[in-house]
Design a protein that fits this description.
By secondary structure, this protein is α/β, with parallel strands linked by helices. It is about 45% helix and about 15% strand. It has two domains: about 5-150 and about 270-320, Periplasmic binding protein-like II (D-Maltodextrin-Binding Protein, domain 2, 3-Layer(aba) Sandwich), CATH 3.40.190.10; about 150-265 and about 325-350, D-Maltodextrin-Binding Protein, domain 2, CATH 3.40.190.10. The chain has helices at about 5-30, 30-45, 55-70, 80-95, 110-115, 190-205, 205-215, 225-230, 245-250, 280-290, 295-300, 330-350; strands at about 45-50, 75-80, 100-105, 145-155, 180-185, 220, 235-240, 255-260, 265-275, 325. Helix 3 (about 55-70) links the parallel strand 1 and strand 2 (about 75-80). It is globular, with a radius of gyration of 22 Å. Mean pLDDT is about 95; it is low at about 1-5 and about 5-25.
């Protein structure tokens, strides 16, 4: 063997030794229930996560945090809006092509449907016992668990609209003075927008959207699109925008300000679940432990998203949840209501 080959062999051997030592160190830092899953997940090697809850930047940060916590189990992040993620999952099923290991959507009605069809895996993450009490046991049969607490409200571009002139309630946006100045997502793409539409219909009837259409809102896809539109100065007020994405934009110097509507903010307590045909079931269970554990909450709070646990502080500058009126339709209302409002939305807005 040449000296070059010896050096290569030494480098390779040393590298494997370092990786092995690193993996052992990480494993020793894990509680027993995670360590057992980690050993099985490393044999599978990866997980594919259909992420429809956090924005692309935060989703990628979550994937990296998982990779660092569990070396040797790669997280493949597939980020889209919630409705698109559900469509992709449905297409996978029809094609008998299992790809998704963990499915995360802001439309909780997706889970009651999948559960009824027998398409989810029953699993109770041990770490879920440390989550905020209101976020635990959203499914008593343990087919899905909270992985996202999203707050959706309004915002305005401070260069285009002063705080004194900004709308203060959801119904203020119906005033004709906001014609050609509003931006909103689409329930055909965004689960959160679908849930918001169900809630507004519940509170005000469909007349709310008939009147909103007269103001000619710019309709994007994601609930995050109005934030981009306001940043660019193309529209001055955004409806049903996520606190996390908006606060992150503000932290980067964009001229936006959050509006907490007087009626309350939309709260989406949104789950994740493991499809029954997940190709990497042990890695999927490990990822569910990660989502309900401290690591996910510590990661998402850095981009101004709400942590799911009391042992992780809220994002910098965030309003306390105890001081807010939270609006949320039930799981049953979401499952039946979102398809209904989507059909009527297309008739009303012609998009």
């Amino acid at each position: 063997m040449s000296s070059l080959n010896r050096r290569q062999l030494l480098t390779l051997t040393t590298g494997f030794a370092i990786i092995g030592a690193s993996t052992r160190a990480v494993a020793q830092d894990m509680p027993a229930h995670e360590r057992q899953l980690y050993d099985a997940a490393r044999r599978e090697g990866q997980i594919t996560w259909y992420s429809g809850q956090y924005n692309a930047e935060t989703s990628e940060a979550v994937g990296r945090a998982f990779n660092e916590r569990f070396p040797g189990v790669r997280c493949n992040v597939v980020r889209s809006t919630s409705q698109v993620a559900f469509q992709r999952l449905s297409q996978d099923t029809r094609a008998n092509a299992a790809q998704c290991d963990v499915f995360s959507s802001t439309n909780s009605g997706h889970y009651t449907l999948l559960k009824r069809e027998g398409k989810l895996t029953r699993f109770l993450p041990e770490n879920s016992k440390g989550m905020l009490p209101a976020l635990q046991n959203i499914d008593p049969d343990n087919f899905f668990h909270t992985s996202y607490l999203g707050l959706y409200l309004m915002a305005h571009n401070t260069r285009l609209v002063s705080e004194a002139d900004a709308p203060r309630s959801w119904t203020d946006a119906l005033d004709p003075r906001w014609k050609d100045k509003l931006a909103v997502g689409h329930p055909g793409f965004s689960g959160a927008i679908g849930v918001w539409a169900v809630q507004m219909r519940k509170m005000y009837g469909w007349d709310y959207f008939t009147r909103l259409e007269r103001n000619n809102p710019q309709i994007g896809r994601s609930s995050q699109d109005p934030v981009t539109t306001m940043n660019a100065g193309e529209r001055s007020v955004g409806l049903c925008v996520p606190v996390g994405t908006t606060a992150l934009a503000i932290s980067r110097g964009n001229p936006l300000k959050l509006i907490y509507p007087t009626e309350g903010v939309l709260a989406t307590i949104s789950p994740s679940a493991i499809p029954s045909n997940a190709p990497h079931p042990n890695a999927a269970k490990l990822f569910m432990e990660f989502q309900t554990g401290k690591q996910l909450s510590e990661t998402v709070r850095l981009s101004f998203n709400e942590p799911l646990r009391a042992d992780v502080p809220p994002p910098a500058g965030a309003r306390a949840l105890t001081g807010l009126t939270l609006l949320a339709p039930s799981l049953a209302e979401q499952e039946s209501g979102v398809p209904e409002v989507l059909e009527t939305w297309r008739e009303t807005f012609r998009v």
